[in-house]
């Protein structure tokens, strides 16, 4: 039976509508696919970049670990050579100190932080150490190295900023250095300074007491002047007399001048350290 005219119009219109819908749907699917493909490519690019960044960071960490290991090995090598250098140190020092250096150096430590390097010395068998506060100031991390290649983590017990004294603690049993009465210091008496000048671990320099009761940064007449060579890295190290006792802590030198080093007198060290210990530990140490 032949379709009537209005039936043909309806069928034609419906077919046209259906074709338009299919075309629109195809276009929508095409654009959706394109968007998904773009998002996938972008995500893949981000993943690739993230992997590259991660690998770069891993490489940096690895390089830092290797550098740190090389530095530790180098430091251990330098420290380990101390035994071989004792004979040279004794030969270069006068007879007054030939028997003192080997004993004293066992109680001297190298202090390395993330921003500086200095020296300290053990004042108690339980591992309490005295150094200059400026060696530890603003440091985020620090380590202690002993003459026998020992490596220790360290705690800051307390400090006195005015006199530039800090009290530290490491775990273990150690040989300590004794403090002498700085009221008995004689101008002209021989002394040695032990420290790490310019990164040269456990170096010894000899000199004399040039003057006593010099005024220093604390504003008090509490400093020994010595011509024993002091350089950056000596800070916090001991100034030792012929009896093998500490008469001062090496603190600073006058820039532009030769043989103008200064050490805080031992009686002040004792007083300040005990004040810190009483406040933080409820006991005296010296």
Spell out the key features of this protein.
seven-stranded antiparallel beta sheet; 286 residues; 5 helices; six-stranded antiparallel barrel; Thrombin, subunit H; alpha+beta; 13 strands
Outline of the structure:
By secondary structure, the protein is an alpha+beta fold.
Question: Can you walk me through this structure?
Answer:
The model is unreliable at 87-92 (pLDDT under 50). Strand 6 (155-160) and strand 7 form a beta hairpin. The protein has a 7-stranded antiparallel sheet with strand order 5-4-1-2-3-7-6. The chain is rod-shaped. It has helices spanning 5-80, 82-92, 101-104, 133-136, 266-281, and strands spanning 108-113, 117-124, 128-131, 142-146, 151-153, 155-160, 165-169, 190-195, 203-215, 221-226, 238-240, 246-253, 261-265. Among the domains are: 1-80; 182-272, Thrombin, subunit H (Beta Barrel), CATH 2.40.10. The longest helix has 76 residues, at 5-80. The protein contains 5 helices and 13 strands. With 286 residues, it is α+β, with helices and mostly antiparallel strands.
Distance between the termini: 124 Å
Record field, number of beta strands? 13
Instruction: Classify the secondary structure makeup into a structural class.
Output: alpha+beta
Q: Can you say what the CATH homologous superfamily of the domain at 182-272 is?
A: Trypsin-like serine proteases
Q: Which radius of gyration do the C-alpha atoms yield?
A: 36 Å
State the helicity in percent bands: 25-40%
Number of separate helices: 5
Q: In one word, what is the shape?
A: rod-shaped
Q: Estimate the strand proportion.
A: 25-35%
CATH class of the domain at 182-272: Mainly Beta
């Amino acid at each position: 039976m032949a379709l009537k005219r209005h039936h043909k119009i309806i069928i034609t219109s419906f077919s046209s509508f259906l074709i338009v819908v299919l075309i629109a749907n195809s276009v929508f699917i095409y654009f959706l696919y394109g968007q998904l493909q773009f998002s996938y490519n972008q995500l893949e690019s981000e993943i690739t970049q993230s992997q590259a960044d991660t690998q770069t960071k891993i490489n940096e960490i690895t390089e830092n670990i290797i550098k740190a290991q090389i530095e530790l090995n180098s430091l251990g090598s330098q420290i380990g050579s101390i035994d071989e250098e004792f004979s040279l140190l004794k030969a270069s020092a006068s007879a007054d100190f030939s028997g003192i250096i080997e004993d004293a150096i066992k109680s001297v430590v190298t202090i390395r932080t993330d921003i500086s390097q200095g020296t300290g010395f053990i004042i108690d068998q339980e591992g309490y150490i005295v150094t200059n506060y400026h060696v530890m100031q603003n440091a985020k991390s620090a380590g202690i190295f002993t003459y026998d290649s020992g490596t220790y983590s360290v705690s800051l017990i307390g400090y006195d900023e005015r006199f530039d004294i800090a009290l530290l603690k490491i775990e273990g049993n150690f040989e300590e250095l004794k403090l002498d009465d700085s009221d008995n210091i004689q101008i002209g008496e021989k002394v040695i300074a032990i420290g790490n000048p310019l990164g040269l671990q456990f170096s010894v320099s000899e000199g004399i007491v040039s003057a006593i009761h010099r005024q220093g940064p604390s504003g008090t007449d509490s400093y020994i002047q010595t011509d024993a060579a002091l350089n950056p890295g000596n800070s916090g190290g001991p100034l030792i007399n012929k009896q093998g006792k500490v008469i001062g802590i090496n603190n600073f030198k006058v820039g532009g001048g030769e043989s103008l080093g200064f050490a805080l007198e031992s009686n002040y060290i004792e007083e300040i350290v005990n004040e810190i210990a009483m406040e933080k530990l409820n006991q005296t140490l010296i």
